[in-house]
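Re: the request from the purification team.
They wanted to know what the chain is likely to look like in 3D before they choose a buffer screen. I agreed to run a prediction and write the result into the notebook, where they can find it.
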Amino acid sequence: MAAMTAGAELWQALCAAREAAEAPAKAASEEENSGAKSGAAPGPAPGPAPDAEGLLAKTQSCLDKDPENASSYQDEESGASVLMVASQLGLIEVVKTLLERGAPWNALDRKGRCAGEYALEAGHQAVVDLLVDHGVRAEMLLGAIEKRKLERGPMAANEDYLKSNVEYTSDEQKLMDPNGDAVMMEWERPLMQLHAQVICQRGALTAGESSEQTPTGDVLNVGFGMGIVDSYIQEHKPRRHVIIEAHPQVYKRMLDDGWDKKPGVEIVFGRWQDRVASIGQFDGIFFDTYGEYYADLKAFQDNLPRLLRPSGVYSFFNGLCPRNIFFHGVCCQVVQLQLDHMGIEASFQPCELEADANADDTWQGVKRRYWWNDTYYLPICVMRPTTAATDA
């Protein structure tokens, strides 16, 4: 019989502690299911708290035997890791030790859950915070986030998308690419209204009046799509409304719909990478392109110090890691730190989505959906008054 590995040994110890903690609740559930329902007394109290010191010593011992195996061990059947179980038990020192010894913070079990979600579900906020901080540091150091594909944009590359045929569905509910993936969808309308409101508020705030009394200043939108956000921007009567659109068919649709004749609108046809150097400065900016990587979002944000005026507001479609709420939170904090280094203060306002956003009917005909959550975290990013470049 083969000797037990250090990882398997640690896994057994952590699982035993979890079973002991869960035993009373399981017993109560079994008693209820057996039919004992007639005025029964409340079930037993939760099981004993895990032996934190003993499990930390066990963790250190296993790591000393085989650091790589012990820190990264995952159960073959469930895919759960030692870090996940330690997070679920709230063993913050064990979690910290495992992370320090190389445990992958972003490993997934067979249901697609990570250690952060185990801690969230168990209510261990201190462990969640520790994992988030570690994840942010890892992303900032390794830049792994920049290699990730944005969910809304699964084509091979931005250039492929620009050469492809796109189609507006007959019911005007979707803009589709040739692979059957959605470029944009009608369920986003309430979000686009909020984005427009956010980026158009700067001009009114500067004047000390409401947006109904004061025309908004200069606004830039990168990526027209279905034109939803631009329609809402128009309601704020911007002085200058610049729209950058690179797809030829979408550009033609804009002209056919008369966007080049709307008040204050300037259409800039081409890739933003080739155009932003010469379009001036703005009071509000929205970025929502398709078929790009996070690195492209970051590359655009690198232009913000010269594009965004002091106290100007920037926002973007926040589709960062939407499948996993924990990873989504890490990505938001990475963006927050990156923008802070540019003198931009970023916050994320939670917005509850309407039911149709995740309804099966909404996604019918879409090959790969790009949204799963009930809450959308709206980016509100404000340039500090002393940071932005001045107009030439």
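For the purification team: Residues 140 and 334 are 7 Å apart (CA to CA).
Please add any questions underneath this entry.
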